């Protein structure tokens, strides 16, 4: 049977619907990617074909990183060199310490937005100190197992996250398509055509790289006046050097940078782990999320001490590396950083003449390839529960509206929890059993999951006045999950006892009985 990406791990409030996947995928590889010999670094180094794929993928990613790093530097309000150096150090470091092979980490817009106020209000030294502290916090979060919280992110939040990223990637290209010379448009069209059509003929060389080379050659030979990479900002002329931020090691400094560092750490972890999960799905492999979490921290610490602006995983460049170019190992990630440094420092004059139209074409196709088109097919939408569609759409809207992935994912998770809680709350029922041998005894059977949402209605489902002297509440088909449920049972017992009636609760499973015994009578107050 084909894998169904929408059906897997989907938090559904209704009976799951079968949503066929248009094309079957390979069977998952057991264990981490390194366990698959064909995708190990050593095996790739021994295979000229695989090594060529990794090398060319790294080159394409490096070219795509340059304008992104420059634009994110401008967004953060710092010199473009800080973004370019960050992309180099992040990519090279994460290639060794990260938990998801072939994923690209570099300077990102999400991180730039979070910490931009620091450089504006306090200067570059405090800015770099914030990056370093964020890295330290990510290492701590990784050791504490924060990555395990990924299991609580519903599948439809993931789908919304992916679709929102695709939209944001496309929207980021609009500034290069509005108010530009007319020649930009046919160049972009040609680039898109090359990327779409070339793989049907040959996959020896990545189509994005061919598009970049051919469009650059055409623009140079024909002397076409269009925006180039050099127009985005100055490229560095020297290697990055060790940098120690000149800030006082005081509580006041910590109070200034800590809020921004915490925000950067959480946003970076969230974006990186979501991207890692996406690559896991695409490649049908597993990755070490805990290692990826603290690895991002190590990369940010290294980046900070080399004067970089910090960053996290990049969805667009990762898709270029994994999906468009076919890379699967740490080699491509490492070479992306190395090639980036070589290109901007040693070959800066050549890189500067690359038309932005070529890179825009690449990113447009990345956007198209990233979007989960299956999720919006009429047949899919018809079969999905409305609650799932709501979660996906909310995640997309909030992410695109705020340009902040953390807000979008948080909104999606909160809405999913509310909808699930609302649905489950109505699964709890209380049934009066009239078949009792004793006239002075009334038996109630409680069925369902008792937690804060469902237990509130429990209190109102008993006839306190009309019931006889003895009340038996049968919990054989119920489970107590929290203190709210114990408090509700206490309130029921108290109300019966106030009328001179006895209540006996029977049939609890071991976990429910333990929780009830621990908390009953100790929560204080009536209902």
TrEMBL record:
Its main location: membrane. The keyword Zinc does not apply. It is found in: Membrane. Keywords: Membrane, Transmembrane, Transmembrane helix. Residues 431-527 form the STAS domain. Residues 19-31 have a biased composition (Pro residues). Signal peptide: none annotated. Coiled coil: none annotated. It comes from the Bacteria. Gene3D superfamilies: STAS domain (3.30.750.24). The chain crosses the membrane at residues 55-76, 82-98, 126-144, 156-174, 180-198, 205-226, 256-276, 297-316, 336-368, 389-422. Residues 1-35 are annotated as: Disordered. GO terms for cellular component: membrane. It holds the Pfam family Sulfate_transp. It is a multi-pass membrane protein. This is SulP family inorganic anion transporter.
């Amino acid at each position: 049977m084909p894998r169904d990406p929408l059906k897997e791990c989907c938090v559904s409030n209704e009976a799951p619907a079968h949503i066929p996947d248009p094309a079957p995928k390979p069977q998952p590889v057991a264990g981490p990617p390194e366990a698959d010999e064909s995708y190990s670094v050593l095996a790739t180094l021994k295979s000229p074909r695989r090594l060529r794929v990794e090398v060319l993928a790294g080159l394409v990613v490096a070219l795509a990183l340059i304008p992104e790093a420059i634009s994110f530097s401008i967004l953060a309000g710092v010199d473009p060199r800080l973004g370019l150096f960050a992309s180099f150090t992040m990519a090279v470091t994460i290639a060794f310490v990260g938990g998801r092979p072939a994923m690209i980490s570099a300077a990102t817009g999400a991180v730039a937005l979070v910490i931009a106020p620091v450089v504006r209000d306090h200067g570059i030294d405090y800015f770099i100190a914030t990056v370093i502290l964020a890295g330290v916090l990510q290492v701590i979060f990784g050791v504490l197992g924060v990555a395990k919280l990924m299991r609580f992110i519903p599948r439809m939040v993931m789908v919304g996250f992916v679709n929102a990223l695709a939209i944001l990637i496309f929207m980021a290209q609009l500034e290069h398509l509005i108010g530009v010379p007319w020649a930009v448009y046919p160049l972009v069209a040609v680039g898109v055509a090359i990327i779409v059509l070339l793989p049907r003929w040959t996959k020896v060389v990545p189509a994005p790289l061919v598009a970049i080379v051919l469009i650059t050659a055409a623009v140079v030979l024909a002397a076409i006046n269009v925006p180039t990479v050099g127009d985005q900002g100055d490229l560095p002329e020297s290697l990055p050097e060790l940098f120690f931020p000149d800030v006082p090691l005081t509580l006041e400094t910590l109070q200034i940078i800590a809020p921004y560092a915490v925000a950067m750490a959480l946003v970076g972890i969230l974006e990186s782990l979501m991207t890692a999960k996406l690559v896991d799905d695409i490649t049908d492999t597993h990755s070490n999320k805990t290692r990826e979490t603290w690895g991002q921290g190590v990369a940010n610490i290294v980046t900070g001490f080399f004067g970089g602006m910090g960053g996290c995983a990049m969805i667009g460049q990762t898709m270029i590396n994994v999906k468009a170019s076919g890379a699967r190992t740490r080699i491509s990630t490492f070479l992306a950083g190395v090639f980036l440094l070589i290109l901007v420092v040693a070959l800066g004059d050549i890189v500067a003449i690359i038309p932005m139209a070529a890179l825009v074409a690449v990113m447009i196709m990345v956007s198209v390839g990233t979007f989960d088109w299956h999720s919006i097919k009429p047949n899919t939408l018809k079969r999905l529960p409305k609650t799932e569609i709501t979660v996906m759409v909310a995640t997309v809207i909030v992410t695109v509206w705020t340009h902040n992935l953390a807000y979008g994912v948080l909104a999606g998770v909160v809405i999913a929890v509310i909808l699930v809680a609302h649905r489950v709350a109505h699964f709890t029922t209380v049934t009066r059993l009239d078949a009792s041998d004793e006239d002075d005894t009334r038996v109630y059977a409680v069925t369902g999951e008792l937690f804060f949402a469902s237990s509130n209605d429990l209190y109102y489902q008993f006839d306190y006045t009309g019931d006889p002297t003895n009340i038996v509440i049968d919990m054989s088909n119920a489970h107590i999950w929290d203190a709210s449920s114990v408090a509700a049972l206490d309130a029921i017992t108290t109300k019966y006892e106030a009328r001179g009636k006895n209540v006996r609760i029977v049939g609890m499973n071991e976990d429910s009985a333990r929780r009830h015994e621990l908390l009953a009578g100790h929560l204080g107050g009536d209902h």
